[in-house]
Inverse folding.
């Protein structure tokens, strides 16, 4: 098939127009689909979604123990009920709930209850102190306690963090001994 240069140009323009229209349709479809799947599209967030999100954030954070905390939402007001073992855990739960988009208010009905077992109380104090320290806030360590002897497990970034953990734990009332099983990255 022999085409003149004028015919080749006309075919090229037609091809380019078709390509541009196709791209515009694809981009429009992708934009529409992505807007439709976000929880904030049109109607905003539901109470069920807010409850699910707060509950997931609290229970997925392995630095704290929120097994005894229940979350309910009505008219975008989150109610937290249950018990935790430190004031810091209580405050953190309220902050997490309040940071969820769409939440109007948080009702805090969480009580701080000291555990009956002194080893559990000591583990909670150690975890709480580690989480509150700005240098250590981002790390997650496992803590075990038996008769006042604390054992730490986990991985830290550098020796400075490891030394800070040791120093901090030795200063906590009730710690009689420290076994440091922390590894450096």
């Amino acid at each position: 098939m022999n085409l003149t240069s004028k015919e080749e140009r006309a075919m090229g323009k037609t091809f380019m127009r078709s390509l541009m229209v196709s791209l515009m349709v694809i981009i429009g479809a992708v934009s529409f689909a992505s807007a439709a799947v976000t929880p904030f599209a049109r109607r905003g967030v539901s109470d069920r979604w807010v409850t699910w999100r707060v509950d997931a954030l609290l229970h997925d954070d392995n630095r704290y123990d929120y097994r005894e905390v229940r979350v309910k939402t009505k008219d975008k007001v989150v109610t937290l009920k249950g018990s935790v073992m430190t004031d810091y855990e209580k405050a953190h739960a309220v902050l997490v709930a309040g940071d969820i988009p769409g939440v109007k208010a948080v009702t805090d009905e969480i009580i701080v209850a000291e555990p009956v077992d002194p080893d559990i109380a000591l583990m909670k104090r150690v975890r709480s102190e580690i989480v509150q320290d700005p240098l250590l806030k981002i790390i997650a360590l496992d803590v075990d306690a038996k008769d006042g002897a604390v054992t730490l497990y986990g991985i830290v970034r550098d020796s400075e963090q490891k030394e800070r953990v040791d120093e901090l734990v030795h200063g906590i009332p009730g710690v009689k001994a420290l076994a440091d099983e922390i590894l450096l990255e």
Confidence is low (pLDDT under 50) at residues 29-42.
